[in-house]
Amino acid sequence: MIEKIDLRALKVGDTLPSVNTGPISRHTIGLYAAGSADFNPIHTDSDFAKDKAGLPDVIVHGMFVMSYLAKIATNTVTPEAIKRIQTQFRAMTNVKDDLTCKGVVEKIEQTEQGKIAVVNVSASRGDGSVVATGEIDILLS
Amino acid sequence: MLDKSFINYEMPPFETCLEKGQMEIFARALNEKNSIYTDEEVARAQGYRSIVAMPTYVIRLGTRDDLIYSMFDMLKIELSRLLHGEQEFKFGQVSCAGDVLTGKKKIVDIFEKKQGALSFLVTSIEYTNQYGAFVCSDQCTFVIRNS
To answer: Which residues pair with A90 in a beta bridge?
Structure first.
């Protein structure tokens, strides 16, 4: 289930195992709201989303998407190796969107923390449209 | 338009405990399969104090009503106009269930784009744990639609 990778062998251009959200249900949005204590009704109340925010429906928490991007790292390396996660939210994620989260090693650099792999990550829908991009720094040694 | 006089505004330090039950719901919402994040026995067997906090779980510690909604009220931000634009976490020591963190939150920046159609609010929270070690910084950029 957990695909461990050999960090010593990691090199620029390598792809980390991708992660899929599956079609995101209202139930999952509700669970995420409870787990993250983010109760903004724009995520959980379709009446609020329509009448107050002018949206067609509730939207998925941006942090849910970022958390899935982080799974690229949590699925493959130890918690100690995850040094930074950064995400830009580029589009709203909607109910039933099915996102694929991908990570590619962009560069490997020596920092004061040690040798770091900077992984470019992105979350996209089935049609290729991107909802979030970012970077994860993984400590190699 | 947001009141720029709030740049560098610091909120009083707050203490927060990593609650195991809520961490479990968080991991379940994300369908997490790495059991150090979900199973106490597995986590302990690998040398952790308890289940490990998933990296983005830290966001939960800063979303308490008194930390976030009171700030939006102070800045007169309507929730219906608010979007999460960007987020960054930097990590020090790993956090586990039961840890007690101290957070210090401040407003880093406020600025406008598109002739004031969009306002940006940047906040940061620095967390240390019960041993005094740095565990995480949480920098958040909100976008407010003014028109």
So the answer is: none
Amino acid of residue B107: I
List the single best residue of A67, A75, A90, A137 to mutate versus B (max B Cβ within 10 A): A67
Q: Which domain holds residue A85?
A: 7-24+61-139
Residue type, A5: I
Q: For chain A, what is the domain count?
A: 1
Give B67's contacts in chain A (Cβ within 8 Å): none
Residue B19: the pLDDT is 96
* B107-141 confidence digits (pLDDT tens): 999 999 999 999 999 999 999 999 999 999 999 99
- The SS3 of residue A49 is helix
Q: Where are the alpha helices (DSSP H) in chain B?
A: 20-29, 40-45, 58-61, 65-74
Q: Which residue type, as a one-letter code, is found at position B60?
A: R
Domain B4-19+54-145 has CATH 3.40.50.300: no
Q: Residue B106's closest CA among B135, B87, B126?
A: B126
